[in-house]
């Protein structure tokens, strides 16, 4: 796998250690070699670092098994997910799925997450790319507050806080991008 094919969420092996790409930037300046900068997380330790790749080095690809599991319920520090085909229960430590739970609305359709396994061990839990959440708390819109791209804070039904346009009101259903936690559009 070439470094230019890295994307957020992609897993690769470098110096015998498995990393997950958190953020990625490709820079090509005139008359200079391409430079790739990636913010990566060590899967084993959780340490985050920035790696700069000169040119386009070849990285070792990691064999990842993926499984789609639906959120079922939380019981203290253990969160339960269910395989929708076999109805098998998968208990997971809350710390492993904290990011995915930011987008789960307990009062709506449960989210379906992708579990990434390497050698039978969970390495990451990825929420769906987009989720629909309800606005539970935001300031009311005021006539005249229509400056270009004006945003206001909103608290969503999952507890997530994000910036939304001025026309959004309490009770509106919004599509949220789970990669950034940002408002996309009305649902």
Low-confidence stretches: none
CATH architecture of the largest domain: Beta Barrel
- Compute the average pLDDT: 86
Under CATH, the homologous superfamily of the largest domain reads: Nucleic acid-binding proteins
- Count of discrete alpha- or pi-helical segments spanning 4 or more residues: 1
Task: Note the beta-strand portion.
Answer: over 45%
Spatial shape: flat
Strand order of the largest sheet: 4-3-2-1-5
Number of strands: 15
Tell me the helix content: under 10%
What is the CA-based Rg, rounded?
A: 20 Å
Distance between the termini: 37 Å
For the record, the count of structural domains works out to 3
Order of helices and strands: EEEEEEEEHEEEEEEE
Q: How does the major sheet shape up?
A: 5 strands, antiparallel
CATH class of the largest domain: Mainly Beta
The secondary structure category is mainly beta
Describe the structure.
This protein is mostly beta strands. It folds into 3 domains: 3-61, SH3 type barrels (Roll); 65-128, Nucleic acid-binding proteins (OB fold (Dihydrolipoamide Acetyltransferase, E2P)); 131-186, OB fold (Dihydrolipoamide Acetyltransferase, E2P). Helix content is 2%, strand content 51%. The protein starts with 10 loop residues before the first strand and ends with a strand.
Could you give a quick summary of the protein structure above?
The model has no long low-confidence stretch (mean pLDDT 86). By secondary structure, the chain is mainly β. The protein is built from one helix and 15 strands.
């Amino acid at each position: 796998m070439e470094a230019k094919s890295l994307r957020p969420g992609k897993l690769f092996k470098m110096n015998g250690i498995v990393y997950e790409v958190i953020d990625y930037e490709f820079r090509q300046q005139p008359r200079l070699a391409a430079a790739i900068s990636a913010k990566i997380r060590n899967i084993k330790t959780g340490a985050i670092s920035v790696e700069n790749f000169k040119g386009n080095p070849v990285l070792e690809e990691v064999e990842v098994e993926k499984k789609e599991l639906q959120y079922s319920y939380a019981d203290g520090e253990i969160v339960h997910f269910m395989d929708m085909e076999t109805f098998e229960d998968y208990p997971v430590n809350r710390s492993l799925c904290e990011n995915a739970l930011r987008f789960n609305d307990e009062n709506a359709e449960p989210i379906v997450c992708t579990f990434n396994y390497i050698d039978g061990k969970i390495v990451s839990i990825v929420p769906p790319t987009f989720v629909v959440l309800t606005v539970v708390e935001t300031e009311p819109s005021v006539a005249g507050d229509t400056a270009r791209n004006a945003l206001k804070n909103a608290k969503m039904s999952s507890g997530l806080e994000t910036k939304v346009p001025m026309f959004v009101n309490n009770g509106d259903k919004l599509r949220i991008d789970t990669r950034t936690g940002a408002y996309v559009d009305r649902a």
